[in-house]
Each structure stands twice: as structure tokens, then as C-alpha cells.
Write a structure and sequence with these properties.
two-stranded antiparallel sheet, 3-stranded parallel beta sheet, Malonyl-Coenzyme A Acyl Carrier Protein, domain 2, 11 helices
């Protein structure tokens, strides 16, 4: 079972993206038009020292993650069995699962960044409500590849994308739970789990090593029973949706 992981805020750095911007010029032009500035210049040169600003960090990571994924698929021709993203990286996981297109994802991330940059203690709930209202303007398709949800630490199985993404602003990322769940799912399916970080850097791979060390104890039987049932359900849904 191959799992692709997308990193979120905190994994950015000046110079990320490298030659990707020249390899995917049409998408880069589209991003520049939506954002109103050069995403390539921001990531590679950061002349105005804006890359660390929340409203700029999100779009930068989203674009670099998206282009990295497209390059990987073009090179290998193979898609993952499961997708998972840390925080903002969940937007890239949903993009890769074809729940929305590149433009929609970028607009969502852009608005999310602006709202989060204005939030302070006590205003997070208001930033969440505004983002939820914005999300209602968009249609989200069912994932073509299973995607883990940071809010529930379970795969998206229904029309819950808008709700989950709006609550994500004020919620803790259930990253360890997501990874342990996927490792246990591999056990339930009788398959080895291969994790691969898609994007620039190895932030999530480093975290993965720690999680694996902490997860040496076997999962309790009720948990494995749940996962076995889910594995069977994913196979049925996957066959119907064309995942498998």
C-alpha cells in the first residue's frame, strides 16, 4: 500500500520549487494571475521577505506541492493507494484525489491564509466561520483516491470536505493518529505500507521515523477489527470509483 504525504506550513524555505516553475509554466501563470504576484519569485528569491507571512506561505507550499506531485506522476505513471496531508498539505491531498482542480485549491488556500493572518486569540472561531461560508461557494467531488482527514484521522468517505476543511483552522492536526491508522490498515489488509513525501524536503519522513518508533506495540484487537472492516469497504468503494 503506497501512501503519498504532503507537508504543510513550517516546511517552507526560500529556494523551494527550483526548476518546477519552468517545467509547468501554464499552471505557474495561472497561479500568478490568481495571486497577483510571481509565485516563482516569491519562492526562489523572496525579495520582499514575504515567504514567512501566513498569507503567502500557504499558496507557495500549495503550488510547490502540486507541481511536485504532477512531476512525480509524469515520471512514474503510478498513483498512490492513499493520500494524506499535514495541515495545509491536506488541500494537496484532496487536489491529487481530484476533489477539485488546481485553481479552486489555490483560491481556497489563498483565502485560508488571509483569514488566518488576521486571526488572534479569541477570533479563531470567527476565522473558521468565514472560511466555512467561503467553502460553500465551491463544489467538491468524491475522492478518486482515498484521502485521510486531519479532523477525524479517518478516510473521507462522504460529502464532508467543506466541514472538515473549515474546522481544520481551529483544530489540532491528528498527524500521529493518521499515520498509525494507515500502518494498522496495512496490517489489516496484509500489505506492507510504503510512505513517500511529495514536495520539497523531508519534514514528514523525519516525523514518520519517530512515529514508527513509538508505534512498536501492536494495535488493540477492536481497532484491528474496525480496520479490517474498513479495508473491505475501501475495496468495494474503490472498485466502484475506479481507485483499484
Amino acid at each position: 500500500m503506497k501512501v503519498f504525504m504532503f507537508a504543510g506550513q513550517g516546511s517552507h524555505y526560500q529556494g523551494m520549487g527550483g526548476s518546477l516553475f519552468d517545467e509547468f509554466k501554464p499552471l505557474v501563470r495561472q497561479a500568478d494571475y490568481i495571486l497577483g504576484y510571481s509565485i516563482k519569485e516569491l519562492c526562489l528569491e523572496d525579495p520582499r521577505k514575504e515567504l514567512n507571512r501566513t498569507q503567502c506561505t500557504g499558496p507557495a507550499l500549495y503550488v510547490v506541492n502540486a507541481l511536485s506531485y504532477l512531476k512525480k506522476i509524469a515520471q512514474t505513471g503510478k498513483k498512490p493507494d492513499v493520500l494524506v496531508g499535514h495541515g495545509l498539505g491536506e488541500f494537496n491531498a484532496l487536489l491529487a484525489a481530484e476533489c477539485f482542480n488546481f485553481e479552486t485549491g489555490l483560491r481556497l488556500v489563498q483565502r485560508r491564509g488571509v483569514l488566518m493572518s488576521h486571526s488572534v486569540d479569541g477570533l479563531t472561531a470567527a476565522a473558521q466561520e468565514k472560511f466555512q461560508q467561503y467553502l460553500q461557494c465551491f463544489h467538491f467531488g468524491e475522492p478518486r483516491v482515498p484521502v485521510m482527514c486531519n479532523l477525524t484521522a479517518r478516510p473521507y468517505l462522504g460529502g464532508e470536505i467543506a466541514t472538515a476543511l473549515s474546522h481544520q483552522i481551529a483544530s489540532t492536526v491528528s498527524w500521529c493518529e493518521n499515520i498509525r491508522y494507515l500502518m494498522a490498515l496495512g496490517v489489516a489488509r496484509g500489505e506492507p505500507v510504503s510512505f513517500e513525501e511529495v514536495g520539497q524536503g523531508d519534514t514528514l519522513m523525519k516525523i514518520l521515523k519517530t512515529i514508527k518508533l513509538q508505534a512498536a506495540d501492536p494495535a488493540p484487537q477492536p481497532y484491528l477489527d474496525e480496520l479490517t472492516a474498513l479495508a473491505a469497504k475501501l475495496r468495494r468503494v474503490g472498485a466502484r470509483m475506479g481507485w483499484l
